[in-house]
């Protein structure tokens, strides 16, 4: 006869698991173990078949933030405030804790919120292109450090991409990059979508748009209609926003360049042999293949001539400053 000198134990604790394992090893029948320990037979079976003791559930500790969590959640759900803003508010309500505790809780709330979904907007052939600039940091040529920008335009239907690197985002660079893109595509779409850059739009208040007159003359010459995306809605230009990380990882990063001409020559090779011949993730075909269906408007025989001009005040010694150069002599 076996006498149990231990009190009933929970088989889901490490102590109970050890006890069941020991008794089973000693040859005690499962039904007897269950009876004497006050456990269900299935609990005994599970403990015997487990190789490791059950994990102990940690009891959650009370937090000094607990009395304020409902308020914080309401504010975040309604207004999506910053952690510093919420900290200021609950400090006024007596919160004695740190910023870190609050920041971690707010991060949990925001991570749990569903992300807004956007319907992908597809355009028919020849209707729309999208254009944007992106800063690519600074690059040094011939001992001179120069800010580098990338002009990018993509056709909405075919996803054919054109890029050009420049050292300026002024109107002349913008216009020449457009012309080069039109030549690359072999034509022009009905509309081109932009953000609110100063070379395109001088000011905007709601639906009232003050267009840059020289750019509008350029657009009229080539027969396309410029469109503006809504301020703060970069997803409207998703087709042109997404390629910049692709341009960086697939082409620019890790490549050595001699000068600006070298960058653009290598960029053209990359466009022709990589970017526009890959299977596009959305269209499931190559951009060059879809380009055959674009039915673009024809180019003009003569290029539009853009001239960049700005007002500058000269110093007393007849020198002016323009685009970082301060030694330009003003002839009078």
Polypeptide structure, described:
The protein has helices at 14-25, 30-37, 41-49, 69-79, 83-92, 99-112, 171-185, 213-222, 238-241, 243-252, 260-275, 287-291; strands at 128-141, 144-155, 161-166, 191-194, 201-205, 208-211, 225-228, 319-322, 325-329. It has 332 residues and is an alpha/beta fold. The chain folds into 3 domains: 1-56, Arc Repressor Mutant, subunit A (Orthogonal Bundle), CATH 1.10.10; 66-112; 128-291, Ribonuclease H-like superfamily/Ribonuclease H (Nucleotidyltransferase, domain 5), CATH 3.30.420.10. A 5-stranded mixed beta sheet has the order 3-2-1-4-7, sandwiched between helices. A two-stranded antiparallel ribbon has the order 5-6. It has a two-stranded antiparallel ribbon with strand order 8-9. The radius of gyration is 34 Å and the shape is elongated. Mean pLDDT is 81; it is low at 1-9 and 235-240.
């Amino acid at each position: 006869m076996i006498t149990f000198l231990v009190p009933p134990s929970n088989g889901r604790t490490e102590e109970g698991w050890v006890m069941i394992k020991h008794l089973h090893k000693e040859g005690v029948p499962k039904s007897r173990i269950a009876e004497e320990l006050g456990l269900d037979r299935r609990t005994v079976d599970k403990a015997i078949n487990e190789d490791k003791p059950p994990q102990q559930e940690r009891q959650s500790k009370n937090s000094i933030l607990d009395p304020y969590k409902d308020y914080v959640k309401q504010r975040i759900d309604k207004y999506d405030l910053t952690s510093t803003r919420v900290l200021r508010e609950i400090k006024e309500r007596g919160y004695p804790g740190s910023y870190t505790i609050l920041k971690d809780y707010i991060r949990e709330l925001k991570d749990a919120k569903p992300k807004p979904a956007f319907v992908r907007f597809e355009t028919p052939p020849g209707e729309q292109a999208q254009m944007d600039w992106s800063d690519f940091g600074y690059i040094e040529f011939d001992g001179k450090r120069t800010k580098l920008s990338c002009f990018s335009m993509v056709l909405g239907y075919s996803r054919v991409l054109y890029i050009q690197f420049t050292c300026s985002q002024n109107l002349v660079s913008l216009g020449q990059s457009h012309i080069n893109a039109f030549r690359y595509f072999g034509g022009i779409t009905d509309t081109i979508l932009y953000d609110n850059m100063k070379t395109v739009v001088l000011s905007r208040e709601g639906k009232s748009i003050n267009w840059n007159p020289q750019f509008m003359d350029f657009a009229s010459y080539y027969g396309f209609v410029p469109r503006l995306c809504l301020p703060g809605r970069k997803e409207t230009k998703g087709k042109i926003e997404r390629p910049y990380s692709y341009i960086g990882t697939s082409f620019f990063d890790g490549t050595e360049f001699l000068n600006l001409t070298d960058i653009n020559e290598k960029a053209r090779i990359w466009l022709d042999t990589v970017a526009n011949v890959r299977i596009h993730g959305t269209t499931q075909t190559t951009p060059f293949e879809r380009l055959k269906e674009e039915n673009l408007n024809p180019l003009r025989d003569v290029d539009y001539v853009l001239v960049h001009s700005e007002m500058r005040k000269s110093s007393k010694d007849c020198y002016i400053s323009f685009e970082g150069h301060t030694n330009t002599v003003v002839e009078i």
